[in-house]
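=== How it folds ===
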Amino acid sequence: MLRQFLLVTACAVAPFATLAQDDGVDVPPDFQPLDVIEGPIDEPEDQVFEENVPFDEYGNPIAPNPDDPNAPLRPGEGETVTTVQEGPEVVEGTGANIRGLDKLSGKTVDLSLKTGETGEIGWLQITLGDCRYPTDNPVGDAFAHLVIRENNDETPLFDAWMVASSPALSALDHARFDVWVMRCTTE
């Protein structure tokens, strides 16, 4: 790999030096870009390169599974890889408080929606699908599923979960309006 890097570097520098001299750019007379690849290159002894190592699409070697030496190196077609991450226990709220910002005028609009209701901020229609919050911290966070449409279009601009504590994690991408979840309601 080091050899490939040096060869690419030398190939990229040599034409530059020739062009630079042709264009009247001062290049030191002792400059010789091909000196970079002359002679053998010593590989570090602690690096061992095997010939039949599979590589991923980025050129990184794929290591075998250390727990099972007979396992395939990566999942094959048709195999499903599932990871489960335990999160906080949540409770469904009856609605949510949502805030919208008109970026042009700087005005904010607060909506209080029940599950299944639709409200408007400017020409956006916001439908609350569900709102959930952690049982141990009801005012600390909210997760709301919103469907946002513009001018009653069939295709939504946004159809995903928003997280109150991390609004940029899943945000509406709109030129004029910002929308985010404040909290779930329980009444």
Residues 1-10 have pLDDT under 50 and may be disordered. Helices lie at 2-22. The two ends are 64 Å apart (CA to CA).
